[in-house]
Amino acid sequence: MLLIIALALLGILLILLLFREIYSLLDAFISPSISRSNAEIMDEIIVFFLFFEFAAMVISALHHHGHTSINFLMGLGITALLRGLITAHSNLTEVIGNSVAILLLVIGMVIFNRNIKEM
């Protein structure tokens, strides 16, 4: 019971932070002066989606009584790596590292799903 209450409070905090990021993004888009670079706005968008994923993870844990499936967590990892791949397009080493990590996670998900179905 305590775990569910803690997850609910964490979810509320994440939703508040999510709305704060929405406000700052809207402020950046509506602002008539261009004082921010595209990279700064992209960073804010990535932070927004990061809060969104954490909120989704908390909601998933609340639906499953404090537990989260490994497929969901691996999917979040792939999504996070894809975001990193989008922002690191100028650094070749980071692009290759993110691409290999995404490939390994996808292979891991396939192996995991095949072994779970056989059990």
Automatic annotation (TrEMBL):
Domain of life of the organism encoding this protein: Bacteria
Coiled coil: none
Membrane topology according to the record: Multi-pass membrane protein
Primary localization: membrane
The family this protein is said to belong to: Belongs to the PsiE family.
Keyword Chloroplast tagged: no
Entries under InterPro entries matching the protein: P_starv_induced_PsiE, P_starv_induced_PsiE-like
UniProt keyword annotations, A-Z: Cell membrane, Membrane, Transmembrane, Transmembrane helix
Protein name: Protein PsiE
Membrane-crossing residue ranges in chain numbering: 45-63, 70-89, 95-112
Source species taxonomy: Bacteria, Bacillati, Bacillota, Bacilli, Lactobacillales
The keyword Cell division appears for this protein: no
